[in-house]
Design brief:
The protein is mainly beta. The chain is built from no helices and eleven strands. Helix content is 0%, strand content 48%. Strands 2, 4, 5, 6, 9, 10 and 11 form a seven-stranded mixed sheet that branches. A four-stranded antiparallel sheet has the order 1-3-8-7, with no helix packed on it.
Length: 124
Amino acid sequence: QVQLVESGGGSVQTGGSLRLSCANSGNSYSMDCMGWFRQAPGKEREGVAIIDGDGSTDYADSVKGRFTISRGNTKNTLYLQLNSLKPEDTAMYYCAARRSGLYCRRSPEYFPYWGQGTQVTVSS
């Protein structure tokens, strides 16, 4: 069974940085599409960034130039480097994955596997 576990969240001040990690601890199968989503209280879950099996990425406009998504050597580990953080980045950040690289799009409906989330809080 696929089991995604996020880590690396925390509280930082505006302009600070965090590095989030996501590991598939359930099995050794590679995921050809993985992504990071976030959800703030009262808002719907939004796609932050995705990366496919070939390393192609797609970012939300609000994080371009500040966040970087990457994968580990096994492709079962996902990272998100968050730089120049702003208070509006405050949210629960979720790791998501799908086995097929087809339809690798930055929308929650395309991802069947999800982690429990890690909280990112950015203060003024």
